[in-house]
């Protein structure tokens, strides 16, 4: 657990960037397609850096502005890394949140933590 507590979001980012680098489309592979909130709504819910940013406590305007960056996920994790709650364990919990449900990214981080703990 000490490893989890001492690892910053910036260190996590390097893992995510390494394993989920930009795809052929030029967008972050961490980002997922839009998913409708419900069948009757035209509003769309994004299960990507925007929702993660909101779960991290950032304002919607802040997360919306990240879209203009080359790597919005990197920028988000850099901003979050200065907060005292920025640990791998907390990032995994946010990724597993009922709304976000980014189990794919959470699994990569869990595997990384397990490998680091065994070295």
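^ Assign residues to that structure.
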């Amino acid at each position: 657990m000490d490893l989890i507590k001492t690892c910053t979001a910036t260190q996590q980012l390097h893992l995510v960037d390494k394993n989920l680098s930009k795809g052929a489309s030029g967008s972050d592979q961490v980002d997922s397609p839009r998913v409708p909130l419900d069948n009757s709504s035209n509003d769309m819910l994004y299960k990507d850096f925007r929702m993660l940013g909101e779960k991290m406590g950032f304002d919607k305007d802040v997360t919306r502005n990240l879209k203009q960056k080359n790597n919005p996920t990197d920028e988000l994790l850099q901003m979050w890394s200065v907060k005292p709650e920025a640990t791998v364990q907390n990032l995994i919990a946010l990724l597993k949140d009922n709304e976000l449900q980014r189990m794919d990214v959470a699994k990569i981080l869990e595997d990384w933590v397990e490998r680091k703990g065994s070295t």
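DSSP finds seven helices and two strands in the chain.
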